[in-house]
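YfhL family 4Fe-4S dicluster ferredoxin, pasting as requested.
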Amino acid sequence: MALMITDECINCDVCEPECPNGAISQGPEIYVIDPSLCTECVGHYNEPQCQQVCPVDCIPLDPERKETQEELQQKYLRISATA
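Structure tokens follow.
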């Protein structure tokens, strides 16, 4: 699954620089995650780094974007091939 940022986001700016895929950016009101770039840090780390640094715990799995570990790995490989 890709991750998502909920309305509880306080725009603290700590998640964006932690994303190794550049999937997090400032949206109109709060930070947003591009699901096409989010691999939950598969290929980089054992755990999603944005979740680790978020002080308000507002980055859950996106129930609309279910992906297996294998699918996340394949997405990582596609992203890293074009980088």
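Note for the archive: The mean pLDDT is 95.
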